[in-house]
Specification:
alpha+beta; Mago nashi protein; 44% helix
């Protein structure tokens, strides 16, 4: 008799209870869906930022500690004179070399020193990294100048080989003049000794 009297009420209470659970589940699903969408959006933004950073040129960022070779040559077509500056790290030895050549009379004087501190090589590497040589053009030319100087430079960072050159035009923030001065000063004592013997 009690079941008959209270049956409809119990049914309504049970149904209400189930509806509450269902509403909570729907709400929880909505919350989960919202959280999931926020997560996807955040991941997309992070990926976009990373890709912008990757394609900004930093993917080719050089490491000064991996710098092993620098060669710079400047040549004057009118006089036939050229000078080369070179520094290389090979077999745990850093060697600096300077060459003065005259192509008209076919002579070339070479001055080389092999006790260069590793720190000097890294210093030069840092100068090249700061100048972002990996972003230099392959050629710079000033067509308004005749009988000027042409130059070429190749450097090596790890397995990366970088080459650039030009005629009476250079990239902005070009550190080669300073680098060449460092190599000149390293080779200068030997150059002096060679000239004193002549």
């Amino acid at each position: 008799m009690a079941i008959i009297l209270f049956g409809p009420q119990l049914f309504v209470i049970a149904l209400s209870f189930k509806m509450i659970i269902f509403v909570k589940d729907v709400q929880m699903f909505k919350d989960m869906k919202k959280s999931f969408l926020i997560g996807i959006l955040a991941a997309t933004v992070i990926l976009l930022l990373c890709s912008c950073f990757y394609f900004s040129g930093d993917k080719n960022k050089l490491n000064a500690n991996e710098f092993t070779y620098y060669h710079y040559r400047v040549h004057n077509g009118y006089s036939g004179m050229s000078r080369e500056y070179e520094i290389e790290y090979k077999d745990s030895v850093v060697t600096a070399t300077m060459r003065d050549c005259n192509f008209i009379i076919d002579t070339c004087d070479v001055y080389s020193v092999s006790d260069v501190p590793r720190e000097t090589l890294v210093e030069i590497g840092e100068m090249l990294v700061k100048a972002k040589v990996q972003n230099w053009e392959s050629s710079y030319t000033n067509r308004d100048v005749f009988d000027g100087d042409s130059w070429s430079m190749d450097v090596k960072f790890g397995k990366d080989l970088i080459w650039s050159g030009g005629y009476m035009a250079w990239p902005d923030n070009d550190p080669t003049r300073e680098i060449n001065k460092i190599i000149y000063n390293l080779c200068k004592p030997q150059k002096g000794e060679s000239e004193s013997r002549q």
